[in-house]
């Protein structure tokens, strides 16, 4: 990846900080890499394991930074700009046209969490060597779910671009088919689905902290005692409350990067709830998150006459 | 089990101080007959109603939640109910995704002089909730 | 009395059922994309082929537990009129299928909650009434490093019994008095003949793990004089990527920090004790609004310091990390605590 390192060097000369990736603790994990010294550029990588949405750090930075974004991640920047969470002049964006990344959690589950000692990728197949054996997978079977329905493989905003443009044939309807399918279930089944899933939650808040749009974090109402929105008890209702908080606070803001879901150690499909709201935002306000810098998030504004909201009769 | 329940159910109403709360008062003063399931929380404006208040009410045992504010264009703070409308509509569409019947949540506009309208809203909504019965969000098995 | 038994594979179901009659039995269960300890119910399918996502810590030290209930008899706030209802928990709990590191984790907590002048009665009571059988590990999982911190895939510290999965069945070795509970002679047979196979497995497993670990084979406690420890730039360099969630501490078998809150509804309520995490902002937030650990760097430093420096200082060089690897395996940004300790111990760069 000569091109990658060259671009990083170029941006680094301007910003003195570039947020990118380097190799993680094993061959199937990459880890975010804060380049603050020239010598650290050498370690930067981009591969199928660069799953993180690095934008998560930006609103908290007090300095100018260069940042690497995949197509999907780039929407986060646009959303930040819409909401005034960053200033355009404070970021130098290196965009990467992306062919998809691997669902590392799924891969770990496939090999039963055995320690991985090597991987090799050859065309469409990936060989994973663990301490006890070697297994081969089709790349497509390990592709992250969000990549299978990606509509924006190419960055929507950037200063530098790496890679050939990638074409996406995914339509809006295809991208939201999972939500539509789920909604066909009877109400009781939906409730019991969430009862089981949310019941697993340990409220570690990894989903919240991995979410680039959850910018309150330390001041999150899920944790404050005043107001006392949730209690410390592990009752199901408290867990539901937390998930409603995250979903409602992301209404018309979630860019569907899927970080919340990826971060969750117990595999709760937390992104689904936000996708559902996004679907409604489109229907009600013809709004899609993270596409145009000049858009206004629908919950930040109103119209005196709403075309799509009808009065509800009893 | 959406069977007609005779027992009183728990319905929480968030009412704007400037209109619906007054409307409820008018209804009371005029001695309009109303069901007694509703517990009222007075708020300064429907715009103060965070959708999460509604959620918290459900999770704390409410079987139905009603939000009522000033009619569009009549908000005391001019835009409060416009914002509220968007948020509450969003919530109404989200609830069934979690398996909570959206009929359990209703938002509407009632002015201070509309005692009769208030009576109708409460009566009708209470009927709907009784039709649906108590809301059950079952506890899963917990360790410890 | 015989201390080693052998259980045929086909009898496991029957065995667990019989165990569940002796106390409340907890086994690792696949709950969909995660493995959790749950109460055993007839037909529960026990999942031993991968490390449990969450350690069994919560069985003995629940994420949230009621300490007592209270009720104001008449006037709210009048202390004389409070009625207190204590919790008497004398239930017998059995954990089957922990990992050796999980058991070792309890030993770390025991030092703090039991081996002290003021034991924590809630924890002590549960711990004393618990029986733990750990399943030895055939091979390392992603991030495992138990041997580097004094444990091992066949280590039995903290366990009452050690289970080795062999081809035809399970070898069950009682390691403490309490361990006899797991030797149910109606269903198992003497196991001495299988010992040799077990030793082979042990050797093989330890070899695999140390090969996997390479230079990280041994981790020493941190010297309190470690220079980089107090160097802000060190933490900035290595932990800028941390997103300061509570995942690493909530998944950790050795983390024991808690918070106490009164949850009150009008005239009555309960006092609960629940896990807390030094990675949270609120952990050190003072009533004045001042926070001595306002940023993630100071918070992470505490976590590493607590596990590898302060705790060993206090408890005869024992590291408060059992090397289960969960915090590495599941950290959303792949922070590797071993690497941080390792870097801290490197001679300082000039
Ligand atoms: S990451 Fe998962 S377990 Fe943690 S709070 Fe979020 S949903 Fe719950
Ligand atoms: S809610 Fe999840 S998918 Fe949406 S922006 Fe946050 S992390 Fe990304
Ligand atoms: S080390 Fe990882 S798991 Fe722990 S707080 Fe930081 S990001 Fe979260
Ligand atoms: S610090 Fe990490 S590796 Fe050590 S015991 Fe805790 S979770 Fe396991
Ligand atoms: S101080 Fe932090 S690392 Fe130590 S036990 Fe508490 S939460 Fe765990
Ligand atoms: S660290 Fe890994 S190998 Fe060691 S006891 Fe725990 S699970 Fe087994
Ligand atoms: S003042 Fe009544 S809705 Fe705003």
Summary tags:
heterotrimer, B: alpha/beta, 4 helices, C: 350 residues, four-stranded antiparallel beta sheet, 10 helices, binds iron/sulfur cluster, binds FE2/S2 (inorganic) cluster
Plain-language structure description:
The complex is a heterotrimer of chains A (314), B (144) and C (350). Chain A is of the alpha/beta class. Chain A has helices at residues 2-15, 71-83, 104-110, 139-142, 145-148, 172-175, 177-183, 187-199, 206-210, 236-249, 259-263, 271-285; strands spanning 18-23, 30-35, 65-70, 91-96, 116-122, 125-130, 134-138, 160-162. Chain A has two domains: 2-103 and 143-299, no CATH class; 104-142, no CATH class. Chain A has twelve helices and eight strands. A five-stranded mixed sheet of chain A has the order 2-1-3-4-8. In chain A, strands 5-6-7 form a three-stranded antiparallel sheet. The termini of chain A are far apart. Chain B has 144 residues and is of the alpha/beta class. Chain B has a single domain (11-132), classed as 3-Layer(aba) Sandwich (Rossmann fold). Chain B has helices at residues 20-29, 51-59, 80-94, 115-132, and strands at 11-16, 38-43, 64-69, 105-109. In chain B, strands 2-1-3-4 form a four-stranded parallel sheet, with helices on both faces. In chain B, strand 3, helix 3 and strand 4 form a beta-alpha-beta unit. In chain C, helix 6 crosses helix 8. Chain C is of the alpha+beta class and 350 residues long. The radius of gyration of chain C is 22 Å and the shape is globular. In chain C, the strands form two sheets. In chain C, strands 3-2-6-7-8-9-1-10 form an eight-stranded mixed sheet. A four-stranded antiparallel sheet of chain C has the order 5-4-12-11, with no helix packed on it. Chains in contact: A-B, A-C, B-C. The B-C interface holds B 141, 143-144 and C 26, 37-39, 58-59, 62-65.
């Amino acid at each position: 990846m000569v091109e990658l390192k060259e671009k990083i060097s170029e941006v680094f000369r301007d910003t003195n900080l570039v947020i990118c990736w380097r190799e993680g603790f094993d061959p199937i994990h990459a880890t975010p890499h804060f380049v603050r010294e020239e010598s650290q550029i050498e370690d930067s990588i981009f591969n199928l394991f660069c799953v993180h949405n690095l934008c998560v750090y930006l609103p908290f930075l007090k300095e100018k930074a260069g940042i690497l974004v995949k197509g999907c991640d780039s929407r986060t920047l646009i959303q930040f700009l819409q909401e005034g969470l960053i200033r355009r002049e404070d970021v130098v964006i290196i965009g990467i046209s992306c062919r998809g990344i691997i669902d590392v959690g799924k891969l770990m589950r496939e090999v039963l969490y055995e320690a991985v000692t090597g991987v090799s990728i050859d065309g469409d197949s990936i060989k994973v060597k663990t301490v006890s054996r070697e297994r081969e997978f089709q790349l497509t079977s390990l592709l992250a779910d969000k990549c299978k329905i990606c509509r924006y493989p190419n960055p929507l905003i950037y200063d530098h671009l790496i890679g050939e443009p990638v074409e996406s044939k995914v339509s809006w309807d295809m991208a939201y088919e999972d939500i539509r399918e789920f909604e066909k279930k009877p109400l009781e089944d939906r409730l019991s689905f969430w009862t089981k899933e949310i019941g697993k939650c340990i409220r570690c808040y990894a989903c919240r902290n991995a979410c680039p749009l959850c910018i309150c974090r330390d001041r999150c109402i899920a944790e404050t005692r005043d107001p006392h929105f949730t209690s410390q008890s592990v009752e199901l209702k408290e867990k539901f409350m937390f998930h409603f908080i995250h979903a409602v606070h992301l209404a018309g803001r979630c860019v569907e990067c899927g970080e919340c879901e990826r971060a969750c150690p117990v595999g709760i499909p937390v992104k689904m709830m936000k996708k559902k709201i996004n679907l409604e935002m489109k229907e009600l306000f013809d709004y899609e998150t993270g596409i145009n810098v000049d858009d206004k998030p629908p919950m930040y504004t109103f119209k005196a006459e709403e075309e799509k909201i009808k009065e509800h009769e009893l | 089990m959406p069977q007609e329940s005779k027992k009183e159910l728990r319905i929480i109403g968030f009412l704007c101080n400037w209109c619906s709360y007054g409307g409820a008062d008018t209804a009371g003063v005029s001695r309009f007959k109303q069901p007694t399931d509703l517990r009222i929380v007075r708020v300064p404006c429907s715009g103060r109603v965070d959708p999460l208040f509604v959620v918290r009410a459900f999770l704390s045992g409410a079987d139905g939640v009603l939000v009522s504010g000033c009619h569009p264009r009549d908000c005391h703070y001019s835009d409060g109910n416009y914002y509220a409308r968007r948020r509450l509509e969003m919530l109404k569409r989200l609830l069934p995704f979690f398996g909570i019947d959206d009929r359990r949540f209703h938002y509407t506009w009632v002015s201070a002089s509309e005692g009769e309208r208030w009576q109708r809203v409460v009566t009708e909504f209470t009927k709907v909730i009784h039709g649906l019965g108590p809301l059950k969000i079952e506890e899963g098995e917990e360790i410890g | 009395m015989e201390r080693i038994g052998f259980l045929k594979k086909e009898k496991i179901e029957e065995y667990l059922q019989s165990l569940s009659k002796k106390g409340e039995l907890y086994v690792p269960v696949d709950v969909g994309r995660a493995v959790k300890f749950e109460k055993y119910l007839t037909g529960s399918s026990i999942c031993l082929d991968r490390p449990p996502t969450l350690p069994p810590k919560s069985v003995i030290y629940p994420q949230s537990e009621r300490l007592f209930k209270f009720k104001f008899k008449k006037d709210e706030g009048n202390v004389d009129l409070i009625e207190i209802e204590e919790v008497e928990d004398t239930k017998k709990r059995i954990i089957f299928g922990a990992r050796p590191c999980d058991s070792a984790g309890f030993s770390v907590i025991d030092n703090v909650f039991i081996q002290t002048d003021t034991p924590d009665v809630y924890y002590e009571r549960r711990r004393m009434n618990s029986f733990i059988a750990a399943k030895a590990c055939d091979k390392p999982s992603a991030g495992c490093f138990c041997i580097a911190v004094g444990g091992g895939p066949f280590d039995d510290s903290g366990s009452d019994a050690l289970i080795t999965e062999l081809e035809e069945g399970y070898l069950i070795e009682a390691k403490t008095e309490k361990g006899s509970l797991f030797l149910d002679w109606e269903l198992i047979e003497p196991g001495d003949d299988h010992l040799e196979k077990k030793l082979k497995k042990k050797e093989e497993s330890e070899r695999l793990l140390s090969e996997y670990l390479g230079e990280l084979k041994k981790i020493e406690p941190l010297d309190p004089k470690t220079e980089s420890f107090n160097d802000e730039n060190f933490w900035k360099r290595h932990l800028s990527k941390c997103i300061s969630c509570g995942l690493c501490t909530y998944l950790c078998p050795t983390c024991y920090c808690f918070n106490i809150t009164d949850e009150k509804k009008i005239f009555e309520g309960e006092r609960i004790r629940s896990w807390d995490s030094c990675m949270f902002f609120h952990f050190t937030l003072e009533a004045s609004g001042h926070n001595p650990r306002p940023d993630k760097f100071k918070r992470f430093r505490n976590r590493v310091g607590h596990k590898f420096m302060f705790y060993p200082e206090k408890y005869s060089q024992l590291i408060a990390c059992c090397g289960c690897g969960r915090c590495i395996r599941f950290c959303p940004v792949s922070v590797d605590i071993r690497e941080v300790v390792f870097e801290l111990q490197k001679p300082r760069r000039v």
